[in-house]
Write a structure and sequence with these properties.
The chain is mainly β and about 120 residues long. It has one domain: Sandwich (Immunoglobulin-like). The chain is built from one helix and nine strands; from the N terminus they run αβββββββββ. Strand 1 and strand 2 form a beta hairpin. The longest helix has 15 residues. The termini are far apart. About 15% of the residues have low confidence. Copper (II) ion binds next to helix 1.
């Protein structure tokens, strides 16, 4: 769904001066100690488990674990973190929340809005 993609581009451009909502894959780090893990489930493009918003402190380690009923691509805007999701298999993006703001987390194929990540110090 490109509706959110537009927001993504603006957010990324404003904060990082880089382009794109294309989503690179792969670079997640394994969650370690001190990581806040938040789990979500998506069924038919709708969130069926997990909070509407995740609020964290600047510098906190965050892991977003998403299980989708369809193959999809998980994307965290602003941080431009992505993970490929296989049907029914949890996928995780993990990162340090070092950019303040509110960022959409979505699935690119279904267009599902997973959550909003709110980072403030
Ligand atoms: Cu996106």
């Amino acid at each position: 769904m490109r509706r959110i993609g537009g927001i993504c581009g603006i957010t990324v451009a404003a904060l990082l001066a880089v382009t794109g909502c294309s989503g690179s894959s792969g670079t997640e780090q394994p969650p370690g100690t001190g990581t806040r893990t938040v789990k979500f489930s998506i069924t038919e493009g709708k969130r069926t488990a997990g909070p509407e918003e995740v609020a964290v402190r600047t510098g906190e380690n965050v892991a977003l674990e998403v299980t989708s009923d369809q193959a999809d691509e998980l994307h965290v805007h602003g941080y431009d973190k992505a993970a490929q999701l296989a049907p029914g298999v949890p996928g995780t993006v993990a990162f340090t929340a070092n950019i303040d703001g509110i960022f959409e987390v979505e699935l690119h194929k279904s267009g599902a809005a997973v959550t909003k990540l709110r980072v403030s110090g």
